[in-house]
Design goal:
418 residues; alpha+beta; Jelly Rolls; Endonuclease I-creI; 2 domains; 6-stranded mixed beta sheet; 14% helix
Length: 418
């Protein structure tokens, strides 16, 4: 018997704003955001999603939309979805939710995306001190390939994936998030020892009711105000999965997510046509609207069996990801090294962020010799299928990071000619 067509549980109309969608979207994490639909273990279902900004970025040459983007809005997520077994019993706290990505892609008729870097005051990017102004590149899709009029001479296959797949936190876990991130912000930059050269960026995005979207909850009520001021932003990945931005999480992949609330309340969004490891420009994958076709399995008691807490409570766990068999194949790479010595010559102790920053800067300096501006290369390295690695983390005082770029994405030779 032929498999059934996936059941559409969250439809999207890209001509409408996020708050106008038939099935309400949300842009925060909170245990009390009500589910918009039930899905049954083993069924194949389809979730559609807007791009991470909800359509604020336009298909044109101007970066004014990136410059004026309201940073309190991203990410707009589809869900939450309540997951139940064949008998209708919902997933329970302590279970493990296995989410299989069966299919995915751009929404038909909306086959384009964008990569950008924010203004410094809106969060900047990994290299804000070098690139403080907003920039944007538009990408058009031809099957599995993407090309951009803003970065000519480049074409590559995309490894499409969702940036965000996560479950709802419990009230206890939400309080842990908010407390530790608030303490980080209140302590300020001076309290930090690692990643000192990155401190021009915001330390964390704390809860705010500004531009908060809570799905089916009615804005303006006392309950909405309470939850809006507690709900966690979707910017970082956390114990629930969330914004992990794992570029290889494509067709055939599985995510094993901890369940913290009844029903798991699964949400997803932030679809990417392609991304480089690190997504260094921050708005840095090829962002797009899209769809996922998923299947879920509830592993009863799976958190205790498979996830070991690394922290003071049983909630301090992290998901496990099983990468699928689909990825672009490249045979020739240019690899750039970085060490934990910053641009001023200051030695840092085993700081992998400094080392990766140096590797990215080295790649930008080299590729800008071939007719590209440094801004073009910065955006390209954020979204092309490049591979980032921590190559050494024990040989004091230098951490060593590498960035490998497939040379086949260029229409010219970028090798060193001897």
């Amino acid at each position: 018997m032929a498999p059934l067509t996936p059941r559409l549980v969250v439809p999207i109309d890209v001509k409408k704003q996020p708050w106008e969608q038939e099935v309400p979207l949300h842009n925060r994490w909170h245990p009390d955001i009500p589910p918009v639909a039930d899905v049954t273990q083993g069924e194949l279902f389809r979730v559609e999603m807007v791009d991470c900004t909800g359509g604020q970025v336009r298909d044109d040459d101007s970066a004014d939309d990136i410059k004026s983007l309201d940073f309190a809005s991203p990410h707009y997520l589809s869900g939450p979805l309540r997951v139940v077994d064949a008998e209708g019993v919902p997933a329970s706290p302590g279970d493990l939710l296995a989410v299989e990505i069966c299919n995915l892609g751009p929404l038909p008729g909306d086959e384009w995306g964008y990569t950008g870097t924010f203004e410094r005051e809106h969060g900047g990017g990994f290299l804000t001190d070098h690139f403080p102004s907003a920039r944007k590149a538009i990408w058009y899709f031809e099957g599995i390939y993407a090309h951009s009029p803003q970065i000519p001479g480049v074409r590559f296959p995309g490894l499409t994936h969702p940036g965000i797949v996560g479950t709802a936190p419990s009230a206890e876990l939400l309080n842990i998030w908010n407390q530790r991130e608030r303490e980080l912000v209140e302590a300020g930059h001076e309290s930090l020892k690692l990643c000192q050269v990155l401190h021009q960026r915001p330390l964390a995005s704390l809860p705010t009711s500004h531009n908060c979207l809570l799905g089916k909850m009615q804005e303006g009520t006392a309950e909405w105000e309470k939850i809006a001021n507690e709900a966690a932003r979707t910017i970082p990945g956390r114990e629930n999965g969330g914004n992990c931005d794992i570029k290889n999480l494509s067709r055939g992949s599985k995510v094993y997510l901890p369940v913290f609330v009844e029903g798991a309340n699964l949400s997803t969004g932030d679809m990417h046509f392609s991304q480089g490891d690190g997504e260094v420009s921050f708005c840095g994958a090829i962002e797009m609207s899209g769809f996922l076709e998923l299947k879920c399995e509830i592993i009863r008691g799976g958190m205790k069996e498979y996830l070991t807490p690394i922290g003071p409570t049983p909630l301090h766990v992290n998901p496990i990801f099983e990468i699928g068999p689909v990825e672009p194949r490249f045979s020739e790479w240019l690899v750039f090294e970085g060490i934990s010595v910053d641009e001023s010559g200051k030695q840092h102790f085993l700081d992998a962020s400094v080392a990766y920053k140096r590797a990215v800067l080295n790649a930008i300096e080299y590729l800008s010799r071939f007719g590209y501006s440094k801004e073009q290369v910065y955006i390209l390295l954020s979204c092309c299928p490049c591979e980032g690695r921590i190559s050494g983390i024990v040989d004091a005082p230098n951490a060593v990071a590498t960035l490998a770029i497939p040379t086949a994405i260029f229409d010219q030779l970028v090798d060193i000619c001897v």
